[in-house]
Backbone:
């Protein structure tokens, strides 16, 4: 049962929203700020032929890697995919379509979509393979290519704190792509580590206003994955 925008489970929060062939934006960078609980629910739903917009595709067996393992993703719109062997193998075998974007361009395409801007011009990629098939113009003597804004059917995001009205606060680098994606979809579903009553959050600290969030869930004790564990070598006493 839902209380305001809050649902008891990820399955309930995604009910009626998933369908084959849809476009989903998934927040996170590496394994930081990734909506793993919502991704797992999408995985278990069995929905297929997805186009997923995400900075990267998680790692093998973690994050969006779950959806790659089950071959539920048809196309990735990403900027970095270097940590996922499954991604590499499917791409090289012609089983996964990939639309690579410079990272800043990807962020701006998402932001533009959320702001209602259908397209914009950028110097990034002009004169390279990225520019192939795209409109090019000259501004102040410089070459610019046109990139289109992105609007998804569904955005799934991870936040540190949220209230029952869907106002969200992100913690440190987990902020990454989550805020812009929350604005750039027809429906946004959030998972939050801490859920508080309306009026509890400092309004000056709210990053995503609740008007953008349609549904949310409170996470159980949450385990955060580490993409690459780096430790300092012990120094002999």
Residues:
């Amino acid at each position: 049962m839902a209380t305001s925008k809050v649902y008891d489970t990820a399955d309930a929060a995604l009910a009626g929203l998933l369908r084959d062939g849809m476009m989903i934006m998934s927040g996170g960078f590496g394994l930081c700020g990734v909506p793993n609980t919502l991704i797992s629910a999408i995985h278990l739903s069995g929905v297929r032929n997805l186009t997923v917009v995400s900075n990267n595709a998680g790692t093998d067996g973690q994050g969006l890697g779950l959806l790659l393992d089950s071959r539920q993703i048809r196309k990735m719109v990403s900027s970095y995919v270097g940590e996922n062997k499954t991604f590499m193998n499917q791409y090289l075998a012609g089983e996964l379509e990939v639309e690579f974007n410079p990272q800043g361009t990807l962020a701006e395409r998402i932001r533009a979509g959320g702001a209602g801007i259908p397209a914009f011009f950028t110097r990034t990629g002009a004169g390279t393979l990225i520019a192939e098939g795209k409109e090019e113009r000259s501004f102040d003597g410089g070459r610019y290519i046109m990139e289109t804004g992105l609007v998804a059917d569904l955005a799934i995001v991870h936040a540190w704190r949220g209230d029952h009205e869907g106002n969200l606060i992100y913690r440190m680098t987990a902020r990454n792509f989550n805020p812009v994606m929350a604005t750039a979809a027809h429906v946004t579903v959030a998972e939050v580590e801490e859920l508080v009553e309306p009026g509890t959050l400092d309004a000056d600290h709210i990053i995503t206003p609740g008007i953008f969030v349609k549904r949310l869930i409170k996470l159980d004790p949450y385990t955060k994955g580490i993409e690459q564990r780096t430790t300092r070598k012990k120094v002999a006493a």
User: Anything to note?
Assistant: The radius of gyration is 19 Å. The helical segments are 10-14, 36-45, 65-69, 85-92, 103-115, 178-183. The mean pLDDT is 92.
